[in-house]
């Protein structure tokens, strides 16, 4: 028989999955606590117990998944030899992350934060944390420490390129041109970052 902690953890995982699905399918407006509870197959009270309001629900869920993906990316990089191989593995992993539902869900939250004064400060804080985590992934790809100007600049270029292409990806634009654009961007980024890693 499951313990209370196990049941609570299972409810949390169902809630996280349902929130991401609803953000992708219905946008911020459709990801209500009631809709999340229904999709997750749990009571509204169970969702409200962990997430007292909708703003906290969506921000905390996006933050949680982003953190998990960052940890996964870091573990992947740790298992790959340094140099070009690690750089390329990191770029491939970042592209997978930006094409995933979590990025679409995050976009919905970011857009909602633009006009919601109560949500905006949370979104800005979330975005700053995610951006720093992404920069850290790029640093680990090169083996360089925080503050190295060259890697910081290249990290920003890579992250913003991924954002732009992923945004087009989420709008339903034809995939082949986006994949070609990423292939070229990946080649360029791999060259710059490998040079930094081996300098």
From TrEMBL:
Keywords: DNA-binding
Domain HTH tetR-type residue range list: 9-69
DNA-binding region residue numbers: 32-51
Gene3D superfamilies listed in its UniProt record: Tetracycline Repressor, domain 2
InterPro entries: Homeodomain-like_sf, HTH-type_TetR-like_transc_reg, HTH_TetR, Tet_transcr_reg_TetR-rel_C_sf
PANTHER family to which the protein is assigned, alphabetical: HTH-TYPE TRANSCRIPTIONAL REGULATOR PKSA, HTH-TYPE TRANSCRIPTIONAL REGULATOR RUTR
Protein's name according to its UniProt entry: TetR family transcriptional regulator
Biological classification of the source: Bacteria, Bacillati, Actinomycetota, Actinomycetes, Pseudonocardiales
